[in-house]
Amino acid sequence: MMKGRQETKDDGGLSPERVSFTRTLVHLDLKGAPPKVSYLAEVLPLFSCLGANGLLIEYEDTFPYYGELHPLRAAHAYSPQEIREILRLAQLHNLEVIPLIQTFGHMEFVLKHKEFSHLREVPAYPNSLNPHKEESLRLLQLMIGQVMELHPAVQWFHIGSDEVYYLGKGEESKMKISGAGLSIEDIFLSHMKKVASHVASCYPGVRVIAWDDMLRGASVQTLTESGVARFVEPMIWDYTPNLDVDDRTALIEKYWQCGFHKIWLASAFKGATGPTQQLTLIGNHLENHRCWQRVAQRVPQGVLQGLALTGWQRYDHFSILCEILPVGIPSLAVCLQTLKEGSFSNRTAATVQGILGMTTLDVENYMSEVTGSFPGSEVLELITQFIFYLKTPTKEFLDDDKFVTGWFSHFHRKRKRLHPIMVQQIEPQAVSLLSKWTSLLEDLQAAMLRIFPPATVEEWLEENALPHYQQLQELVEDLNSAMDVGGDTAQ
């Protein structure tokens, strides 16, 4: 049994040891929003300064796949030269790179394409791979091979494998379950073992990491007998601020009993509080890390390989963008410094403020005023202004202003019906808000384009800002049109 934070000795005995994560990885979720290499050149030194010593890079559709895998490659994917430059920058700043590609669940970026749609577990859904087809394994081998070509020096390779929804619902899986008496866990573990053993045999010395959630429900006997522990180091993820420390400690103990003697943890510094979230509540993620620190205190030294601080930019391939990378940097800084110092204190906050060039730092509330000098700080400042000083006032003006709703409703606007005196009540605020919108959108677009490709910027603006701006713009246009025709043309 594992008792407290301890260090395993050569003689099998245990002695107390202070908590320390040997590897602290910053997760770069690139799904549809890959930062430009020029921005990474600015931000990677910051990660290192804050205490990170590795990157977990989830490429998804931003990897430069070629040949028969070319359809997987997004229009804004990195080039091979850019990937090499990212790896050079990471090495320059002492950040070990671990590539991550999905090999079971979250395969939408592959299975949405007609060339690969026949490999779906359930034909209607592109999220999960059919593990029973030989072509599925060949596809994964090709993907792994192309990623490894550009990452020849890596020590770990992450094969994803989380949230394999609808596994067991495909016809071939149903036949295996009813005919051969297999369980969903058996099917999952068999596929994971095939993928992981392929990596082990083709790339000696490279160890495989996988998300652990699909392992949690399997019994100790099933996990042990599967033989997966020979090939895989599980990464236990939990992003909640009040995670159950006892439960997560017991889960580590369970994996240890099953033969998984090297285990990773995964927290979140952003992107885990809602698919439409645009600002990061730092305290939520700080508390998540405090909980993981308490878990780590109970685990023997040498069991934990490290901690990955995940930073999701969208929940899956088809969801909208949530907090983009620059928005989450203050949260990342707080979490990394807390891990580095062992706790969060006024001194920690002052250190973060100094490194980021911030005049204030509030971890308990959303900050309505944000300034900083860190890479991407302008984007955070402008998004904060948009949410606090434009989005909410515009919505209140359009939906709740008594003059707009009472004298210039959609009924009135359609008929160009307007009492002339109401122009004085509506026009000044409408024009003022529209002017602020125009200025902010120009600044925000320019700032975002310095960090992200045009497609990412277009998506963020169209999803979050343009609907409000366009509603206001249409109101002003209708106001001018009604004034031009004299206001009251219908009774």
Topology:
Elements: E1 6-8, E2 14-16, E3 23-29, H1 37-50, E4 54-58, H2 80-92, E5 96-100, H3 108-111, H4 134-150, E6 156-158, H5 171-179, H6 184-202, E7 207-211, H7 220-226, E8 232-237, H8 245-257, E9 263-270, H9 282-297, E10 304-311, H10 329-341, H11 346-356, H12 377-400, H13 402-407, H14 410-414, H15 420-449, H16 454-484
Parallel strand pairs: 3-4, 3-10, 4-5, 6-7, 7-8, 8-9, 9-10
Antiparallel strand pairs: 1-2
Total count of helical runs of at least 4 residues = 16
SSE string: EEEHEHEHHEHHEHEHEHEHHHHHHH
CATH architecture field of the largest domain: Alpha-Beta Barrel
Helix content: 40-55%
Quaternary structure of the protein: single chain
Kindly describe this structure.
The strands form two sheets. The protein has an eight-stranded parallel sheet. Strands 1-2 form a two-stranded antiparallel ribbon. The chain starts with 5 loop residues before the first strand and ends in a 7-residue tail after the last helix. It folds into two domains: 6-366, Alpha-Beta Barrel (TIM Barrel), CATH 3.20.20; 378-484. By secondary structure, it is an alpha/beta fold. Helices cover 47% and strands 11% of the residues.
